[in-house]
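ok so I'm stuck.
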Amino acid sequence: QVQLVESGGGLVQPGGSLRLSCAVSGSSFRRYAMGWYRQAPGNQRELVATIARNGDTFYADFVKGRFIISRDNDKNTVYLQMNSLKPEDTAAYYCNLGGTDYWGKGTLVTVSS
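replied:
not stuck anymore, here's the structure
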């Protein structure tokens, strides 16, 4: 059974940093691209970043230059390093397995002073 478990969320002040992790089990992790998405209250879920099997990355314009997605295929884990956080980054962050219907339950990030 495929499982995705996010961690690393929390409360951080504007300008601060957080590192999210998503551990994947039950699938051949290295065969899939991975994505991070987020959903703020009252908003639709939106794409934040993706990383391909070969390590190629894509970022939404609103996080370019601030967030970094990476993966460790030996640990079956994808990461999202979030720097220079803004209040508008407040959301639940979810990881997704390669565009499939497999999602984690999310981790909440709150950026507030």
